[in-house]
Fold:
Amino acid sequence: MPTERHGQIIETPTEARQAEPGPSVLALLTASTGLAVLILGTVWFAFFRV
Structure:
């Protein structure tokens, strides 16, 4: 709960972010990019190989 001290609102870092720390954004982007490459590679191999 935010507190007020000398006219300023004091919050913890978690309260200031308004959320709990979640998974790393870098890990999420890496996993989603890898999955996209895998899916597109499978589609290309299934339909466009000579």
